[in-house]
């Protein structure tokens, strides 16, 4: 079981009152964030139990969350998020603080299996592999915006904190503290990663065509000399034009040397293939 106190502080909260819209958005953001991280770490819906208890200190508005969940290898969700004791490799919070509101240019996997984050201004950071889909997720960013950024932009709320749950306030351990000066690090983004597709040219190969289409350039099928089949997109406009004009009547009989690009989605690791050049028949 994990517990954390999330606390808002500022002049607008001296009477322990907080705008209902902000409270509702914050609670919704917390649930969305925890559920998405839980699912990404291999958890199942029925294994997650999230409960809330209100608590009040002078000049603040706070919630205590209790999270009961089952994950392999004793993984603690609140620590991954950053609402707990710092972990080796960093949390979502530390990654977002490092990004400082900038978009990610590219996310790749290192030879060691970690996640390499490259920003639009050329900076790089290595993080645990599970950070790749979480940092790329627009819903995760939207959840952080509801929890942290929006309240700190509303006026009169100056600090968001995640704290340990000691009854005596002075004994609480602060896990994270965000002020209005750096709330922009947690704003929602419609696009989090600029270059999602990684293009990898493959070695030239000799292929035969199994399926072709005059009315579209997708879902063509080829087979190489090793008997491996690929579903490809035909991007060689010159070859496509000749084929559509009937100048490749022996397309199923000839063998062609082709240049192929493998396109890998760096977030979900899906791969697709495109023929960028078709040479004369062998």
Task: Write up what this structure looks like.
- By secondary structure, this protein is of the alpha+beta class.
- The chain contains six helices and 14 strands.
- The strands form three sheets. It has a five-stranded antiparallel sheet.
- Helix 1 runs antiparallel to helix 5 (138-153).
- It is elongated and about 80 Å long.
The Cα radius of gyration reads 26 Å
Class of secondary structure makeup: alpha+beta
Shape: elongated
The helix-strand sequence is: EHEEHHEEEHHEEEEEEHEE
First-last Cα distance: 66 Å
Q: In DSSP terms, counting alpha (H) and pi (I) runs of 4 or more, how many helices?
A: 6
* Proportion of helical residues: 10-25%
**What's the arrangement of strands in the largest beta sheet?**
2-3-1-7-8
Portion in strands: 25-35%
Total beta strands: 14
Outline the low-pLDDT stretches: none
Largest sheet: 5 strands, antiparallel
Q: Give the overall average pLDDT.
A: 91
């Amino acid at each position: 079981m994990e517990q954390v106190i999330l606390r808002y502080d500022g002049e607008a909260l001296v009477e322990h009152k907080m705008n209902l819209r902000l409270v509702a958005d914050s609670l919704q953001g917390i649930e969305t964030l925890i559920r998405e991280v839980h699912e990404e770490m291999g958890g199942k819906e029925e294994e997650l139990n999230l409960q809330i208890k209100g608590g009040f200190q002078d000049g603040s508005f706070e919630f205590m969350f209790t999270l009961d969940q089952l994950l392999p290898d004793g993984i603690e969700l609140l620590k991954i998020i950053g609402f707990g004791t710092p972990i080796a490799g960093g949390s979502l919070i530390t990654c977002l603080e490092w990004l400082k509101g900038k978009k990610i240019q590219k996310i790749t996997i290192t030879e060691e299996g970690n996640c390499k984050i490259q920003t639009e201004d050329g900076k790089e950071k290595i993080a645990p592999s599970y950070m790749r889909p979480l940092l790329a997720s627009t819903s995760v960013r939207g959840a952080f915006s509801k929890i942290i950024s929006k309240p700190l932009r509303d006026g009169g709320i100056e600090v968001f904190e995640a704290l340990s749950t000691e009854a005596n306030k002075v004994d609480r351990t602060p896990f994270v503290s965000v002020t209005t000066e750096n709330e922009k690090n947690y704003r929602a983004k419609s696009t989090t990663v600029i270059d999602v597709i990684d293009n990898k040219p493959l070695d030239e190969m000799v292929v035969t065509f199994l399926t072709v289409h005059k009315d579209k350039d997708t879902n063509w099928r080829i087979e190489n000399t090793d008997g491996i089949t690929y579903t490809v997109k035909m991007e060689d406009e010159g070859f496509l034009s000749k084929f559509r004009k009937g100048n490749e009547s022996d397309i199923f009989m000839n063998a062609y040397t082709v240049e192929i690009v493998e396109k890998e989605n760096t977030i979900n690791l899906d791969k697709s293939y495109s023929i960028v050049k078709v040479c004369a028949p062998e």
